[in-house]
Design brief:
80 residues, flat
């Protein structure tokens, strides 16, 4: 991995982390599983919103899978 690719990727991950920190509050913890899962899904969307476009700019030929539990072949990347 080139140093430029590593730096750009680390910057994208830091930006996603900063967005998650803005959402974080100890007072906002949900009491029940359904609400907690809703918040978890919103956190995932927050990260994807930052990372998907940033990583596509960094490495356009890479492919993206939104769900860590996904399976099967990845869709073709931009370089396809």
């Amino acid at each position: 991995m080139s140093q430029d690719l590593l730096r750009a990727t680390a910057a994208a991950v830091r930006q996603a982390g900063a967005r998650l920190l803005k959402r974080y509050s100890t007072a906002a913890r949900q009491p029940g599983l359904p609400d907690m899962l809703t918040d978890l899904h919103a956190n995932d969307l927050t990260v994807v919103d930052v990372l998907e476009s940033a990583l596509a700019d960094i490495l356009p030929e890479a492919r993206w899978l939104n769900d860590e539990h996904g399976s099967g072949p990845l869709p073709e990347g931009a370089g396809g």
